[in-house]
Design brief:
Length: about 375
C-alpha cells in the first residue's frame, strides 16, 4: 500500500467510530473508497485516475464541500489484480464502511466486483472503463464516459460517411477486445458493409502477426484497440509496409501517451478519446481541470484518465448536492436517477432509472508531424 493510501485509511479508522457513520457519512465528511493500481505495470494509469479525482475534491473542499461536508477519497493499491480489487472492496464495505465506491480502474471492473457492490447495496460511481457489464440498467453502477460500442460506432460512422468501406480491427485477445469486435460487426452491418478483418494480439504471433492479418482484406481503415505500448510499435510496423491506409487508435492507446511515443512517426494517425481534448481550454471543465491538476500535483501533466476522473468527481459532487443534507445511499441513487441533464462545464451527462451511462460522447483527434494533437 502506498503511503498516501495508508494514511488515508488510518485517518479514516482513527477519526470515526463505526456506529456513527454506518454509511460513510458524518456531519463533516463523506468517505469514498477506491481500489486502483498504484504499483505494477498499470501504476501510472492508477495514479492519473487518483490524481484527477483528488484534484476536484481538493478544489471542492477548499470551497466548503457539499452541504458542509468534505468529500474524502481513501485509496487502496490493487496493482491491477482483480482478486486484490475484490479484497480491497470487501475491506471498504465491511471494515471501513465507505459511503460509495469511486473511480475504479478498468482491470478491476469484473462481474464479481459488480455482484459484490450490488449485494452490499453500495453505489459504484465513475469506473474508468468502457465495458458493457458496467452499463446494465437497474444496477447501482453509474458510468460517466462513452462505452466501447459508442467509440466504435463514432469511428466507423465517421469514415463510412467519407466513403471508406473496408475496415480491419486489431485488438487484445480478451473480453474488451471481443466487445470491440462485436460492436464493429454491428456498426458495419447496419451500414450494409462487410464485417471487419479481425486480428487479436496473441503472445505467439506478436506485432508482426497483427500486421500480416491486418492487410489480408486490403482495408481502407485499420482500427486498433490496444494500449500504449504496444500501440506505438504497431503504428510504426504498419507504416513500414508503405500502404496508404488510415490508422485509427481507440482510447485504450491513450492519445497523449501515443503522441509522445510516436513523435513525427504519428503524422496522420487518428485517435479517439472519451473525454474532451486536453488542450481545449475554451471548454470550462478543461480549463478548470488543468488548473486543479497543477494545484494537486505541482506539475503540468495532463491525461485523458485524470480528466475523466476529474469529470466523474465533479458529477458525483453534483449528485451529492442534489441528494440533499440528509445524505444516504438511497438518496444518492435517487438523485442520480433523476439527473436527466447536467452540464459539467461543457461536458453534459444524462442519467435515468434505466440509463446508467452519463455520456456517449467521444472525440476524434489527429496527430501532426510535430507530434501535436489536433481536434
Amino acid at each position: 500500500m502506498t503511503p498516501p493510501a495508508r494514511s488515508a485509511l488510518l485517518a479514516l479508522a482513527l477519526t470515526f467510530p463505526t456506529a456513527a457513520w454506518s454509511q460513510g457519512v458524518t456531519d463533516r465528511t463523506v468517505v469514498l473508497g477506491q481500489s486502483a493500481p498504484l504499483s505494477g505495470a498499470l501504476q501510472s494509469h492508477g495514479e492519473e485516475i487518483r490524481s484527477g479525482a483528488l484534484a476536484y475534491f481538493r478544489k471542492l473542499n477548499e470551497a466548503g464541500g457539499v452541504h458542509g461536508r468534505r468529500l474524502e477519497l481513501a485509496t487502496l493499491d490493487d496493482a491491477g489484480d482483480a482478486k486484490r480489487t475484490l479484497a480491497n472492496t470487501r475491506r471498504f464495505i465491511e471494515e471501513f464502511k465507505v459511503f460509495a465506491l469511486f473511480g475504479y480502474a478498468d482491470a478491476g471492473v469484473t462481474r464479481e466486483l459488480l455482484a459484490l457492490a450490488q449485494q452490499a447495496r453500495v453505489p459504484l460511481f465513475g469506473p474508468v472503463t468502457g465495458a458493457a457489464i458496467a452499463r446494465r440498467p437497474g444496477r447501482n453502477v453509474f458510468t460517466v464516459r462513452a462505452g466501447h460500442a459508442d467509440e466504435i460506432e463514432r469511428v466507423i460512422g465517421h469514415y463510412a460517411q467519407l466513403g471508406l468501406k473496408r475496415f480491419a480491427l486489431l485488438r487484445a485477445d480478451d473480453d474488451a477486445g471481443a466487445e470491440y469486435l462485436a460492436a464493429a460487426r454491428s456498426a458495419l452491418s447496419r451500414r450494409g458493409l462487410d464485417a471487419p478483418a479481425d486480428a487479436a494480439l496473441k503472445g505467439d504471433a506478436g506485432i508482426a502477426g497483427l500486421v500480416r492479418e491486418a492487410f489480408v482484406a486490403d482495408p481502407d481503415v485499420v482500427i486498433f484497440a490496444l494500449p500504449q505500448p504496444p500501440a506505438a510499435d504497431l503504428v510504426r510496423s504498419l507504416r513500414r509496409t508503405g500502404r496508404r491506409t488510415q490508422l485509427v487508435a481507440l482510447s485504450p492507446a491513450d492519445p497523449a501517451k501515443l503522441a509522445r511515443a510516436l513523435g513525427a512517426d504519428g503524422a496522420g494517425v487518428a485517435l479517439s478519446q472519451v473525454v474532451p481534448p486536453l488542450a481545449q481550454e475554451s471548454l470550462p471543465v478543461v480549463a478548470e481541470y488543468r488548473a486543479a491538476i497543477e494545484a494537486e500535483t505541482g506539475r503540468k501533466e495532463y491525461s485523458p484518465a485524470s480528466l475523466e476522473a476529474y469529470i466523474a468527481a465533479r458529477v458525483f459532487a453534483e449528485a451529492v448536492r442534489r441528494a440533499g443534507p440528509a445524505l444516504t445511499r438511497d438518496a444518492l441513487l435517487l438523485a442520480l436517477s433523476a439527473m436527466s441533464y447536467h452540464d459539467a462545464g461543457g461536458y453534459t451527462v444524462s442519467f435515468s432509472r434505466t440509463r446508467r451511462q452519463g455520456s456517449a460522447r467521444n472525440y476524434l483527434l489527429a496527430l501532426t508531424r510535430e507530434g501535436k494533437l489536433l481536434h
